[in-house]
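Worked example

This section walks through a single chain of length 134. The input is the sequence exactly as stored; nothing has been trimmed or padded.
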Amino acid sequence: MGLESVFYKCEKGVDLKQLRLKPWAVASEVMGRLKKTNQVHRWFLENIQNGVDDGRFYIVEEYQFKKLYKLCTTVDNAPERAEELLPTLKGYDIGSAKYDESYFDSLKKALIILGHINNIFDFEKNELVYSSSH
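Given that input, the structure is written out below as tokens.
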């Protein structure tokens, strides 16, 4: 299967335990899915998940989302800074750890989803939730 990361739109105060049990019933919308975008997954591990790759659901605060979006945009515009700003994660079946065409293709796909979320998501009314599995 490989690494899949999902962004969910949920009501404020969402019960993450209920979301884990029945995401289709609790989340109001899937905002996007990323496949084998391990540089983004590593960012979540280091900045939101306290280094624990547990497949749980995590609320993403607006400032955290904006920071990630800015990093992705910066690396897209300055590819030579990829390893410095948005490093890859080595591991089984989570995508390439190289800074090659695959890295930048997955980054461009992630930017489409992150850009969409950035343009339409209302952090005052909803919770943005991230989860991954592999």
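What to look for: Helices lie at 16-21, 23-26, 38-47, 62-77, 82-85, 101-120.
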